[in-house]
Design a protein that fits this description.
This protein has 330 residues and is α+β, with helices and mostly antiparallel strands. It has helices spanning 3-8, 10-33, 37-47, 59-69, 73-79, 84-92, 94-100, 113-119, 145-157, 246-257, 293-302; strands at 104-108, 123-127, 135-137, 176-180, 191-198, 201-209, 216-220, 262-269, 274-280, 328-329. It is globular.
Length: 330
């Protein structure tokens, strides 16, 4: 459909979005009443075996356990790409937060074409409350700002993680972030470098590059040596040259990870800079299908499962003033 048609239909699309949210809440409630039977059925279909969530041993089972049993308030903070900056500031100081977090050109909870256009090109537009949704506007691009604003408003209406019981996302107040685009040496969007950290020690690194075109995935050791650990749903590539900032990213990931039994720390690795992208609590929704199931079992043994007892402990982040303005330039 053309942009104008979509804009005319926006009230109808909004009604559909809210209806879908309600149906997802209903689905999740029914699943809870059934003892998470629907979740277990999906797990069996995707991963290939029936999960034991009560006494988990595999990596995917432990992700499911965390979703259903560990609801530390800090999880909602770190899952929120907007409030994550406050967590990093509180944990490591304002100077470090300014260094490692992306530069925001705009934060808004009322995305309109004019303000997106005013933020300029060479940016990533994304919501704070969900994963995997973004639009890249290259430098000098002739973007359809009305359509981008329409998409951003739809993102804000759509709740994330309801059917999958991803608890941490449920309480996030949605907004739209427009941040500087981090570029690689080839001028393309930066490589994704994701550190899997167990109790402050990086176990492995997941690397995704050419995401906007062919999309290649490869796993490496802590020392950047390629591993044989293929996912069924990703095309494996060759391990690229180690990023020039690799040790800095890894060291910071391990500092963050020291507060958690397990966390995935995701960076954007560019030619001249690196930025913290997000913290991931629920790797692929706990539905990562490996070509070799023994790989997943080995990862699970490395994860000593426990509820969160990190720097904020029971005090949570509610003593901090997180509700800053969500409409304005930065």
């Amino acid at each position: 459909m053309t942009t104008w048609v979509l804009l005319i239909l926006e009230p109808l699309l909004a009604a559909i979005d809210y209806l879908i949210n309600g149906l997802c809440w209903l689905y999740a409630g029914i699943d809870r009443a059934l003892g998470y039977r629907l979740l277990k059925l999906k797990f069996k279909r995707v991963v290939g075996y029936w999960p034991n969530i009560d006494t988990p041993t595999s990596f995917n089972e432990k992700v499911q356990w965390r979703k259903l049993n560990d609801h530390a308030p800090v999880y909602t903070v770190i899952a929120d790409k907007y409030r994550l900056r406050d967590y990093i500031t509180h944990r490591f100081g304002a100077k470090m937060a300014a260094r490692v977090m992306p530069h925001w050109r705009l934060v808004t909870d009322r995305p309109r074409a004019a303000e997106l256009q005013a933020a300029g090109t060479g940016v990533i537009i994304k919501p704070n409350h969900r994963s995997g949704s973004l639009r890249i506007v290259p430098v000098g691009a002739d973007a359809d700002w009305r359509r981008l604003a329409l998409t951003a408003r739809r993102w804000m209406r759509q709740r994330y993680g309801l059917k999958r019981h991803e608890w941490a996302y449920h309480g996030i107040k949605a907004c739209i972030l427009v941040e500087d685009l981090v570029l690689g040496a080839d001028g393309q969007p930066a490589m994704d470098v994701k550190f899997q950290v167990m109790d402050g020690v990086c176990d492995r690194v997941e690397v995704i590059y050419n995401r906007q075109t062919s999309g290649r995935y490869v796993t490496a050791t802590r020392d950047w040596i390629e591993m044989d650990a293929d996912w069924r749903d990703y095309a494996r590539g060759k391990l690229p040259e180690k990023p020039i900032f690799y040790e800095q990213m890894r060291d910071f990931a391990e500092k963050i990870g020291s507060d958690f039994d397990y966390i995935r720390v995701d960076f954007l690795s560019g030619a001249t800079e690196w930025k913290l992208n997000e913290l991931t609590l629920y790797e692929s929704d706990g539905l990562t299908a490996y070509v070799d199931p023994n790989v997943e079992l080995a990862y699970g043994r490395l994860w000593t499962l426990r509820k969160y007892d990190g720097v904020w402990g029971k005090s949570a982040p509610y003593d901090l003033n997180f509700e800053q303005t969500r409409s304005g330039k930065f």
